[in-house]
# Entry
Amino acid sequence: MTQKNSRAGLVFHGFRSFFRMPEGWHAICIYPGQLTPDEKSPRAGATDGVIDSYGGIMLEVKDIKKSFGDIEAVRGISFKVEKGDVLGFLGPNGAGKSTTMRMITGFLIPTAGTASVLGHDILDQPLEAKRQIGYLPENAPVYADMTVTGFLVFVAGMRGYSGKEKTDRVNAAVERCNLGRVRHQTIGTLSKGFRQRVCFAQAVLHDPPVLIMDEPTDGLDPNQKFAVRSMIREMAAGKAIVISTHILEEVEAVCTKAVIIGDGRILACGTPAELKARSPSGRLDEVFRTLTSGQNAA
Ligand SMILES: Nc1ncnc2c1ncn2[C@@H]1O[C@H](COP(=O)(O)OP(=O)(O)OP(=O)(O)O)[C@@H](O)[C@H]1O
Ligand SMILES: [Mg+2]
# Structure
């Protein structure tokens, strides 16, 4: 299915929509799934009673690899995220964090390995897996010529909501992300931090059980950083969350576990306290530096 929407400059390829931004082509995670009339809100945090059959593991990444020609961006990464966990995904620039997240969320096909989301394999059951995921991509790719509300209504529609439920979902996301003041403004005229908030709003709109967030506080002012971290902590109890970040205080502030990667491989993992204990100073930045110094891919 390929359709053009000249108003927003969209091209739909199956259930993935691509759009042009000044810096190139981006994709945003909008997967309506194939909802039948009987499937009432299958996307909204439906983990209770389901989760137990997966032993509490909501996201499992299994020896996932990705090569781009000669570049081995991800060389075999595995981890598990349980309900209630906020996993910090750390690594220097070019370590493979975004590439791993893009594979988990279905934007890139792994060269090898796979992942499963609430037991749904991302390769064998992509729609079921994607319904359970909220994804905040790097650099907040959002449609510049839509208003904030228009964009969120569009996303809610793609997620399968209609009528009052759609309106309620959009209003809740606007409120949760503090977007009321700009809700009728065109996204292209927003500041970077507000665009980030809009992207955050689309990621949480369907209250997904698994949240993948690539640098969620990038570009936010200190108050909004604090607000987003509080929101992540509040949401964590019923979800499995993965965040990538370069802000090591953020790991201590919100993460229950962390994985440090470098050059496409896992270098260390553990609770923030366990990782800090690896350095005589007990500082996470020192542990990070020791493990990753000299690793700076293109
Ligand atoms: N589409 C692509 N084509 C070729 N190489 C790519 C592509 N996407 C990523 N890479 C390469 O894969 C490696 C990992 O990139 P990735 O974006 O995953 O890093 P990252 O850990 O997210 O870095 P950052 O902290 O800068 O966001 C880099 O060497 C990058 O240049
Ligand atoms: Mg990245």
The pocket of adenosine-5'-triphosphate (ligand 1) is lined by residues 68, 71, 73, 91, 93-99, 138, 297-298 (CB under 6 Å). Residues 1-52 have pLDDT under 50 and may be disordered. The chain has one domain: 2-35+43-292. The domain at 2-35+43-292 is CATH 3.40.50.300 (Rossmann fold).
